[in-house]
Amino acid sequence: MCTGTISQDLLSKRKKIALVGLGYVGLPIAMELAKHLSVIGFDINEKRLEKLRQHIDTSGELASDVFEGKDIRFTSSEKELAEASFYIIAVPTPIDQHNEPDLSPLLSATRTVARVLKKGDYVVYESTVYPGCTEEDCVPLLEQLSGLHAGVDFKYGYSPERINPGDKIHTLQNTVKIVSGCDEEATREIREVYQWVTQAGLHIAPNIKVAEAAKIIENTQRDVNIALMNELSIIFDRMGINTYDVLEAAGTKWNFLHFSPGLVGGHCIGVDPYYLVHKAKELQYHPKMINSGRFVNDSMGRYIGKKIVKKVISLGKNILRARVLIMGITFKENVSDIRNSKVVDMIHEFEDFGALVDVVDPLASAEEVWHAYHIRLSEQPEGPYDAIVVAVPHKDYITLDESYFLSLVKGPAVLGDVKGIYRHRIQTLEYWSL
């Protein structure tokens, strides 16, 4: 039986806590816990582990001094993982090529933990999943492989990640954390552990399924609202008015919701709604609004590509072998993460028309881009170009002026500004934004 004192044992360092998965979510949590507890940081990526041992976070989220003075050991050894008594699983939950949930990383991590699980241990999931996944997919696997009984021999819970990559304002420490457990005892112990992670407080969900649902609708809500803005931008473009001008005017109303159009990629907003759609269809309900939002947002990369192609042709140029520069390929500004980048769709659209595309990005890894998309990053722009598209508004791009872009083009050319950061600042180039 579980003793109910695991949080005290962790605090006194009689027991250890393990983070399984050291990406954008797992690593910051591990480092916060390592201020107070003895932490085992587990990951299957040895290259990443070696960097972490050198106090280098390859995602660029944590500075090297964050690692100083922390009680943490980085390992890929299951033998060392077995020293822990409290496991937090924070691995990616992507979708496959058919937009269906791909639970393979989550179930693989679950199998790893199950092989070392002991009586009295705790397992908490952070990965974003559809409601019911923890108790219907993960816990049975823990029981099957460990031979232990959930809720009796070991406890489990769910605390959804709320980390926003690149956001230095809404951080792990100042964001409320949702926690839930399989019973009152588990909830109490999990709450005690997570109070060392955040200073903003905890919200206790009544059960695990509610906590799972709360997380997935956070991103679904944003996805639907951004889809509305993207659809409006298509309508306003046909009217010949700028969407950002409209939003600026509408935003003067106190209750106007401030969303803007753009490319929706990454590992959260562009993925999570599909998990909810999957579960809804399992329950014989086909969600119309969520699916419509996904269709609009998934179409925007290709739409932007077509708009720029039309602009190039309108200048009397042949799009076949026209030269296009794409600035930015990460899924959003000021991060190095390229997962599910919708800029790739734009690139493919240009290539389908026969254009020659160069891509630059000051934050993305050329090796990762090639491995993920077979797209080569250029170190610097090598003009002249017929069109330039600022696809991702990295801080390095914000201060660029029209003279910079003019130095990269020859004759009449198009400047595509996906997020409208140069609005009202371009006089000579053919300007277009969402």
Structure, explained:
Helix content is about 40%, strand content about 15%. The chain has helices at about 5-10, 25-35, 45-55, 80, 105-115, 135-145, 185-195, 210-240, 245-250, 270-280, 290-315, 345-350, 365-375, 395-400, 400-405; strands at about 15-20, 40, 70-75, 85-90, 120-125, 155-160, 175-180, 200-205, 325, 355-360, 385-390, 410-415, 430-434. The chain has an eight-stranded mixed beta sheet, with helices on both faces. A five-stranded parallel beta sheet has the order 10-9-11-12-13, with helices on one face.
Summarize the structure.
By secondary structure, the chain is α/β, with parallel strands linked by helices.
- The end-to-end span amounts to 59 Å
- The DSSP helix count reads 15
Shape: elongated
User: What number is the mean pLDDT?
Assistant: 95
**What level of helicity do the residues show?**
25-40%
Run of helices and strands: HEHEHEHEHEHEEHEHHHHEHEHEHHEE
The strands making up the biggest β-sheet line up spatially as 3-2-1-4-5-6-7-8
SSE-based structural type: alpha/beta
Report the portion of residues in β strands: 5-15%
Radius of gyration: 24 Å
